[in-house]
Design brief:
The structure is a homodimer. Helix content of chain A is about 70%, strand content about 5%. Chain A contains ten helices and three strands. The interface of A and B includes residues 110, 167 and 180 of A. Chain B binds a DNA duplex through helix 4.
Chain lengths: ~240, ~240
DNA sequence: CGGCAGGCAATTGTCGACAATCGACCATTG
DNA sequence: CAATGGTCGATTGTCGACAATTGCCTGCCG
């Protein structure tokens, strides 16, 4: 297979050629590493929607066997980043603006309203310190006009709260939509007129958590998720 | 391994002993079959929360190799039915009533409001006929006091609408919460005072779809999902 | 010239074996 | 007797090979 010309494989090459050979990061399992590499490549657009992937091709590119790649692709499929057709391959998926508006954002609101409420009474001083350090990172990223880091810190903040809520199923659902949320964060982040408002908004969320008023917290979370999104388009309601 | 006594393996045996040897249904892939068998066993309580599973044990019980079992367990983990600890095994998870109320139900509302809206103008006569046949099945199940079938038809109805909405990410998120929704349907179905109202409510949803009023549809969907749930406990709002 | 059966290449699905890792038990030592 | 280090069983992580399936392409037949 490696000696014969194969247009499909060549197409995969073009998208994957710049991927780091995962030999360096052997800290986590390979499945996880492969999933991270592919997720990153899809998120930043290195692997465009419609790109066809094969298990063997990805495995060869990343210098591993098919088994971890196979599991990683299954995971990405669960995350909605790719779709696989039995015996025919896997394809990279896109996320439409309409689905973000009408599915991901409302789901996030439902999920995070609950998560913030549950997290509120559980937070220790160390937890607050951690959240505040993430906010500082956001401010620094905004200062440096580093949109990608800003989006990543934003995701980390929300995931931290969901994790600290201690609600297992909440976290599970969050993880299943997180890659897509991150995808639209990254896409939208470059459009912000003033990136410093992101850090400010999160600081306000931390304040709302400290205040202890559940209804105010609900309002703050809802407003934040919608506002964060309104940057590119006016919401329906 | 098979000749030596192993308490953990014996524990797995006790839970899995009644599982059908999957040799009969080789229509779908084995991964899918294994996932279905385990999901069913967890849903009906045959595998109780806290039950420990091992890839080799399940594979032996079902007469297959570890590869499909492994993938099935990963999928169930994404679905929130089990949790796996690296190098130490997999454990069956439960779903708390609180998380159902505060996570699954609100997420369902967000998701299905959008799905019903998008499905409405796309539905053909054949689609309506299919939905109505599902409603008739519900009525028949209620008549026969078959709570399990009633829950299954209920799930099928909602999945059908989400599928017909044509929204890929909507369907993907639905699939990721569907097993847990099914789990609480099954648990709650036995508590219904009058099971026939379930079929009636879905008939009303079909009517709302036919009527073409988006706002009325939103209200109907929201009320249905909450009402369906109110059967066991009064919702917060 | 068009449709169809059959082979062929590409890809995923499945399997058995081996390596890596974790936790517990046990012997050793101060 | 307590702390510590090593060893061992159990389990998952990874690999390479083989089987099954799909879609295409080709060549035959009407």
């Amino acid at each position: 297979m490696s000696t014969k010309y194969d247009p499909c494989y060549a197409a995969a090459m073009s998208g994957l050629s710049a991927l780091p050979a995962l030999s360096s990061a052997s800290l986590a399992s390979r499945r996880e590493t492969v999933a991270d590499v592919l997720r990153e490549a899809i998120t930043v657009g290195q692997l465009p929607a419609g790109q066809k992937l094969t298990e063997a091709g990805v495995a060869a590119q990343l210098g591993t066997s098919r088994a971890p790649v196979r599991e990683a692709l299954r995971q990405l499929e669960q995350e909605g980043l790719v779709i696989s057709y039995p015996y025919r391959g896997t394809e990279v998926l896109g996320v439409s603006q309409e689905e973000i508006e009408n599915v991901l954002v409302p789901v996030r609101v439902s999920l995070e309203k609950f998560a913030f409420r549950k997290a509120m009474p559980r937070l220790t001083d160390a937890d607050y310190a951690h959240l505040e350090s993430l906010v500082r990172n956001m401010a620094a990223a905004a200062e440096a006009a580093d949109a990608a880091s800003l989006a990543d810190e934003d995701i980390r903040f929300h995931e931290a709260v969901v994790t600290l809520s201690g609600q297992q199923h909440c976290l599970q659902i969050w993880r299943s939509i997180q890659p897509r949320v991150r995808s639209y964060f990254r896409r939208d982040a470059s459009h912000y007129a003033d990136a410093t408002v992101v850090a400010e908004q999160h600081r306000e969320l931390v304040d709302a958590l400290r205040a202890g008023d559940e209804q105010a917290l609900d309002r703050a979370v809802t407003a934040h998720i919608n506002t964060h999104f309104k940057a590119t388009k006016d919401p329906a309601e």
